[in-house]
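Final report, section 2: Outcomes. Of the targets proposed, (2Fe-2S)-binding protein is the one most frequently requested by collaborating groups, and we therefore present its record in full.
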Amino acid sequence: MKRIIKFKLNGEDIEELVQDNITMVDFLRQQMHMTGTKRGCEEGECGACTILLDGAAVDSCLMLAVEAAGREVVTIEGVMKDGVLHPLQREFMDKWALQCGFCTPGMIMSALSLLHENPHPMEHEIRDAIAGNLCRCTGYTKIVEAIDSAAKILERQANA
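The predicted structure is given below as tokens.
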């Protein structure tokens, strides 16, 4: 069965006809052509499909698209503003916190959720926030450094 859902996606109001049983990750990739959200384990274990739902990091492989009705969804495509990378995106590049890049969108989305809740996280809080995101290429040290550095940049921007 299909139904029309209305929700905010990356700041834009959308109205789409969706299958009742399509997951959010498949809806985003197939119907919205937003391939930044990765399809990994499909069991909520790897974090590659992490999006923000009303500001909270969620595994979009465990969520049905119809659950987005009336809510706000942000994907990695919605993080960059006016052609300018978000400090998290820039720091992931500058600190060499990515290698193959498969986990990077999910890592950034989890980190965004953390920094919205806690703009001054300690290292263990950063590690806790990304614990649901699996990276097969790095040792996580550079990822933690990038998130910490972005937090400091965001703090300076807020105080400027």
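The chain has a mean pLDDT of 96.
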